[in-house]
Task: inverse folding
């Protein structure tokens, strides 16, 4: 078995796809977003973030307030780039260290980070904008927030280019599962 990365559009169903695929293949599922959240508490990363964005990004207990930090990250390309350079190398290093045999990794920003050689296959999950916007409502985002955040990503064709397989998540859950099962891994 291989190390498989799942990436794709915001709100496309990457988490659902990654968890299902890991269960289907009988292997572990690792989440880059979970790793990134844990890295905010690493003293060197926290210090750099506070140096850049100020103490206002800390909650009353001194921990990173992710909502406040997101406001800064998605305020300008330079801020998004700073965050990416701060977190991406550490996230990928942590993930690589956690891989022990066959694994499915959910890495939303794989195209922006660059696909490392230790990832054997990559799946891109996509869906029509309307479906993704509806899913993002569960996060408390309207369609304008989805569009605003997507502006910070590479163009879709460049994101797809780093992947080996595309899954179209516009049908029901059984259609998503069928496509994942048919992927050649």
Result:
């Amino acid at each position: 078995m291989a190390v498989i990365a799942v990436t794709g559009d915001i709100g496309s169903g990457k988490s659902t796809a990654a968890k299902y695929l890991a269960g289907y293949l009988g292997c572990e599922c690792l989440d880059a977003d979970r790793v990134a959240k844990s890295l905010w508490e690493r003293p060197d990363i926290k210090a750099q973030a506070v140096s850049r964005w100020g103490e206002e990004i800390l909650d009353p207990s001194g921990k990173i307030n992710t909502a406040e930090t997101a406001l800064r990250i998605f305020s300008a390309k330079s801020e998004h780039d700073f965050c990416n350079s701060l977190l991406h190398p550490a996230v990928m290093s942590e993930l690589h260290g956690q891989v022990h045999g066959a694994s499915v990794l959910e890495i939303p920003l794989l195209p922006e980070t660059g696909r490392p050689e230790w990832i054997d296959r990559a799946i891109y999950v996509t869906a029509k904008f309307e479906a993704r916007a509806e899913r993002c409502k569960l996060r408390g985002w309207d369609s304008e927030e989805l569009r605003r955040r997507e502006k910070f990503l590479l163009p879709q064709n460049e994101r797809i280019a780093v992947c080996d397989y595309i899954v179209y998540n516009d049908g029901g859950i059984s259609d998503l599962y069928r496509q994942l099962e048919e992927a050649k891994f």
